[in-house]
């Protein structure tokens, strides 16, 4: 992956936050893998118990009692979806070209930490739409979500009524714009912000509630109930820290 830092973001040492966010998402995706379901549902595994507790706290996932704490059908679908999303976040942060910069002063939002801009297909050297390439265009995060379940080797987007096949690692770039509030956040909140923003992009989450600490996130996500929690970016952002 190419992480390209611009302007003030190049001066500040930000790479560690992106690397840590990537690692957190990989850990979450690993626990939620369908092939690891027996481990996740092992009542005698202390680490698995911690993960199950976090799934219940942050997303309202319910497990049966007893020696085999099974998942219900609806919760199984959600856990599978969560695994796909966390794996996709890790892949995007690890293999795509990401331009990281602070927003221009006139675009700074004092209430926001960051934002993730949709990807450009076949970008120019600056990560923008290449005016000289008729197949270069601004895609949408919905385009990406429509491709996520097909793996990471190639995506197919529609452009001018025709399918365009691209390699995400080679042919896509996107931007993460940071606000001043990001600079003033603590290390954990910077990592959480990255996952939070990528959940907007890849899980189509909203901001029903905000938290600044793990303790706040646990209370807020649990209080809102499963449907809202599963649609709240901070629940996705803080969940990996409790694993």
Automatic annotation (TrEMBL):
Provide the GO MF annotations for this entry.
Answer: metallopeptidase activity
InterPro entries per UniProt: MetalloPept_cat_dom_sf (IPR024079)
Name by which UniProt lists this protein: Lysine-specific metallo-endopeptidase domain-containing protein
The scientific name of the source species is Marilutibacter aestuarii
């Amino acid at each position: 992956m190419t992480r390209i830092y611009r302007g003030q973001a190049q001066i500040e040492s930000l790479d560690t936050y992106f690397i840590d966010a990537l690692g957190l998402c990989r850990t979450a995706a690993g626990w939620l893998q369908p092939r690891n379901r027996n481990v996740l549902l092992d009542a005698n595994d202390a680490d698995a118990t911690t993960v199950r507790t976090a799934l219940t706290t942050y997303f309202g996932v319910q497990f049966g009692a007893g020696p085999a704490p099974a998942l219900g059908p609806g919760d199984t679908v959600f856990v599978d979806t969560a695994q796909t999303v966390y794996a996709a976040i890790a892949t995007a942060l690890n293999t795509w070209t990401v331009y990281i910069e602070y927003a221009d002063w006139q675009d700074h939002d004092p209430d926001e930490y960051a934002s993730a801009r949709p990807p450009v297909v076949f970008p120019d050297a600056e990560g923008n739409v290449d005016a000289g390439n008729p197949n270069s265009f601004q895609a949408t995060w919905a385009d990406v979500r429509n491709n996520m379940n097909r793996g990471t080797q190639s995506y197919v987007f529609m452009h001018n009524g025709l399918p365009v096949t691209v390699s995400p690692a080679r042919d896509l770039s996107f931007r993460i714009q940071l606000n001043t509030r990001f600079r003033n956040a603590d290390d954990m909140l910077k990592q959480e912000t990255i996952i939070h923003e990528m959940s907007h992009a890849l899980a189509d989450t909203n901001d029903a509630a905000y938290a600044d600490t793990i303790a706040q996130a646990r209370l807020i996500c649990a209080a809102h109930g499963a449907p809202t929690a599963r649609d709240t970016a901070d629940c996705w952002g803080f969940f990996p820290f409790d694993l």
